[in-house]
Design brief:
There is one protein chain. Helix 1 packs parallel to helix 3, helix 1 packs across helix 7 and helix 5 runs antiparallel to helix 7. The chain has seven helices and no strands. It is 93% helix and 0% strand.
Amino acid sequence: MVVRRKKEDVKKEFESFARKISKLESLKHELDALDTRDFRQEAKVIKIKLKDVNSLPEVEEDVENLRRKIMCHSSKRAVKSKIAKKLIEKSNSMEKDRQLMKSKIEELEKNISDKIDKLSRKKAIPDEFLREIKEVPELERKVVELRKDFKEHSKASGIGVPIDSGVDSIVDSRYREFVRGIKAELSEKLKKKEKTLDERLVKNLKEEKENFARKYQKLNEEFHEKYKEKVNEELERDVKERFDNILKSKLEKEKTKITGILVDEYTKKLHNDRRKAIENLHKEYDQKQKELENNLSKRKAMLENEYMKKSSSLDAESKKKSLELTEKMKELNFKRKNVQLAKEEIESSKEMAGKEIEIKLKSEKELIERKKEKMNIEIEAERKEIENQRLEMKKSVEAEKKKLEKEGRDMKEKLNRENEETLKRKEELDKRFEELIDDAKKKMYNTLVSKSNEIKSKSDSQLKEREKSMRIALEKEYKEKLKKEMALREKQLEKKKKELEKHIMQHAKEIFK
């Protein structure tokens, strides 16, 4: 269970390390893709920080700040021309391009209308025509005033005078003829002047139309050329971005796949090495523990044998002395029985012999009494001696027993001390075992780091080869796609160009009608 947990921890650490390295590499590619010509110092500092895995958040923040600076700086250096800005800003899609063309056409139409107005207002018309044209409203005004004066004069001179109808009709008819003649003459002059002016205006308008057509054609060609360049740039950038993204994703997948395979292989190898090391340590530990247990059991058996030998020797001596005391007690009992038998014989002889015998018996009795007393004294002395010997033997047994108990306690204490020493040695062995495991972990970590670097170098070389081959294949594929896309876009652009020219020419015809 511990080994499995350690393996998972090592795998997690390695995966975290691999993710950080991958992130740093992507940041490095992102930094290389930026235009850092005006920010060389910041780029140099970021490249130095890229070598430290622990400075990943700081590197991300620095790269983001550098990107913002470059965007601000590049926006200041952008094209200032309004037309170029509009072309750049509005060429993101075909709809925006169409709106841009429409606004440009409207602007051109407005300019044409302004020019036509200016032309109609400011054309170099001869002064005599201008004077004659100006005389028309003056003549009309004079005719109106003359008619008014005539009516007033007629009213003033003809008050209360009856007017002849014939005179009135003649005057009116002559006046109308006079006015018609003036109007006809003026109308004829005005028509001639208008015809001359129209011819000149048509000629100038035709020249302006041709000039406008040439300028429009030139502007249209420039616009389409710029639009084509912009479309090509957008397509190339789009294709490049898509190509880089696809290549990056495929490389990431290949890198993850290769890294996973190598990590699994080296993880299995490290796991086997660690398992073997742990098994060897366990075998060594078990062997030393068995040796200690064998030594302890041998020492314990030896002490138990010594204790049993001493105990058996004491038991043998105690049994021997007990047998001696038993023999002596048997001998005393035998002597007592003899005394009793002698006493019985004396009693029987006393009855049989009478007084003679009584005297002898008395003397014998006294003698026997003395012997008995002497024997009792001897027996008592012997008993005391036996008692003393028994007490001495008991004391010696007690002393030996105490000695044995003391030796047993000492032996027990010694065994406890040896057990404590064994436990200490066991703890030392456990500590040594942990140290060996830590050393093995450090070695495994160092091996893992070296293997990681080796894996990285191998994976980098493999990825570079794969990247090269994939880049060649993808470049070929996307060049074909780019050609097709460019051809399609050019067809669409040509079609829209024709439609736009047709629309503009129709609009121009309507203007110049």
